[in-house]
């Protein structure tokens, strides 16, 4: 089956987008911005942002922050680092931005999460912990109906 030039370009773009996503996954704690990510795959920042959102449902910066918050959740569950230490360990430069984004994705402050999550996952395989504790944007989370029982 032959592919037309537009399909070939789309496949090349998807391969480049995977490279960007993999770089974010690997280097989440490093200072990354959309322009630097775009330069790494010879795209403009705007084109990368649009294509990344089409492919993955969120812009590159949103994906980066989700990765950072996932890692922060793991570090906070461990309990041996302060919220500030976790903030800087995952690559955030501002405690305020970190706390705001954490609250958006997890639905509670990092300090509250640290107090409530400590030890909850003990004995679970790490692959299960990662799946169960993956952050979901607060506004995307399903609202649970109150039980009348």
Give your account of this protein's structure:
By secondary structure, this protein is mostly helical. The longest helix has 23 residues.
Q: Which residues sit in consecutive blocks of at least 5 with pLDDT less than 50?
A: 137-144
Spell the H/E element sequence: HHHHHHHH
* End-to-end separation: 59 Å
Shape: elongated
Tell me what portion of residues adopts beta-strand conformation: under 5%
- In round numbers, the mean pLDDT is 85
Radius of gyration: 18 Å
Q: Report the major sheet.
A: none
Task: Look at the helices and sheets and give the structural class.
Answer: mainly alpha
Strands, count:
0
Helix content: 55-70%
What is the count of helical runs?
Answer: 8
Summarize the structure.
The chain has 149 residues and is mostly helical. The chain contains 8 helices and no strands. The model is unreliable at 137-144 (pLDDT under 50).
Topology:
Layout lengths: L4 H23 L6 H7 L4 H12 L3 H19 L4 H7 L5 H12 L3 H8 L8 H7 L17
Helix pairs in contact: 1-4, 2-3, 4-7
Features:
149 residues, mainly alpha, 8 helices
């Amino acid at each position: 089956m032959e592919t037309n030039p537009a399909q070939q370009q789309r496949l090349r773009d998807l391969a480049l987008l995977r490279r960007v996503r993999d770089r974010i996954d690997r280097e989440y704690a490093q200072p990354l911005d959309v322009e630097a990510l775009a330069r790494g795959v010879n795209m403009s920042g705007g084109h990368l942002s649009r294509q990344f959102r089409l492919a993955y449902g969120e812009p590159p910066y949103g994906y980066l922050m989700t990765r950072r918050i996932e890692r922060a959740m793991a570090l906070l569950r461990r309990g041996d680092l302060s919220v500030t230490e976790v903030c800087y360990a995952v690559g955030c430069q501002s405690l305020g931005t970190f706390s705001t984004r954490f609250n958006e994705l997890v639905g509670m402050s990092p300090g509250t999460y640290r107090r409530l999550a400590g030890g909850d996952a003990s004995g679970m395989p790490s692959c299960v912990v990662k799946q169960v504790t993956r952050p979901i944007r607060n506004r995307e989370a399903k609202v649970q109906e109150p039980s009348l029982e």
